[in-house]
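Try it yourself: sequence plus adenosine-5'-triphosphate, in.
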Amino acid sequence: MRLTRYFLPVLKENPAEAQIVSHRLMLRAGMIKQQAAGIYSWLPLGFKVLKRIEQIVHEEQQRAGHIPLLMPTLQPADLWRESGRYDDYGQEMLRIRDRQDREMLYGPTNEEMITDIFRSHVSSYKDLPLTLYHIQWKFRDEMRPRFGVMRGREFLMKDGYNFDIDKAAALHAYNRHMVSYLRTYERMGLTAIPMRADSGPIGGDDTHEFLVLAATGESEVFYDAAVTELKLGDRAVDYENRAEVAEVCREFTTLYARTDETHKPELFDQIPAERRRVGRGIEVGQIFYFGTKYSDPMGANVVTPDGSRVPVHMGSHGIGVSRLLGAIIEASHDERGIIWPEGVTPFHAGIVNLKQGDAGTDAACEGLYAALKAAGLDPLYDDRDERAGAKFATMDLIGLPWRLTVGPRGLAKGVVELTSRRSGESEELTAEAAVARLREIYADR
Ligand code: ATP
Ligand code: MG
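Structure, out:
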């Protein structure tokens, strides 16, 4: 993409309404525009990152054997009467009447609808295990929408639902979700710690929240510092193997890590003092096992091998897809702007032309731009007629992890400059070597 052809409405001034750095940087970098309290348009740069995050979520869900579908945003109230939640849900639910005066709602979550799909089409244990998920907009009429996309009213969520024959099988699904979430967040450059949580309005026995440590997080967290060192890395996990998946979960949930809702001071105090930490975290996901809470009242049964009918064991598992943009920025920025991890960056590299209009420099930039595209990369070429300082400031603000700087002085030596946004370190390379280096950096992303 050439910047002169792109739509990147960056702001020079700090927007007054933004209280936290991720919200400020998303507005300044022209990623989002607020349309009503907690409701945003996703401008091209923000939309691109959102799509990258969605893509990672899809890949990791499907790697775990979970199947994508798409349910609507609007739902009939009657479905929610079957579970009893239409009355329980309260003011966060946006209730709507259509022209026939039918009661509808904008879905805050989809347990009822997925259970309805299941009961309409599945009736045998032979069709289990089954996990279905979608990535869809939700609406919750939050009392205090704030912090930009972190606490929106309309927000994008991945929500998945498992259907299993018994509790042991459903807990395996729970564990699969935990491992797939760990991998998902790591690919986004995040450390998200699973913490034992309270079940809240969804109701259930087993539940963990995934928290990204950040001073601006809304949850108070208590943890053993050693938990932040755990990494899944690129180890292969066989998602079909119950024992293996359970062992990974054990590794990640044994050290103390809890939110204020489940915190137990007497357990916390057993951690060696130098490893005890109190901080704040952003909830970027949550997994639940809730047994037959919905299948029972809604009649989602299957026939077992001995011919009896049993309600299926279920769980629901969510990732805050749009909130993740804010969480990533909170975890990765400096005073000049965003620093995107390679896994989610909107463009792989920026090209800065130091002397726009100079025939040799323009030609070198065009050559580099074409070579990067031919290598399967997605560059952003700043071809504006602007001072170098302004171009650097824009690149730093929008946070591309790699910048290629091209000017007459380097070209006279046959080199361009490759700079890491994170470390600030630069290296002089021939254009070919720079392309090869970037190709290597992005080889498995
Ligand atoms: P919170 O405690 O932050 O209100 P929740 O526990 O009610 O969230 P879940 O039902 O667990 O939310 O939804 C799954 C995920 O969706 C959450 O882990 C969070 O990342 C995201 N999410 C929830 N509410 C919002 C919101 N208002 N704006 C953006 N993302 C949200
Ligand atoms: Mg939650």
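One thing you can check immediately is this: The CA atoms of residues 175 and 250 lie 9 Å apart.
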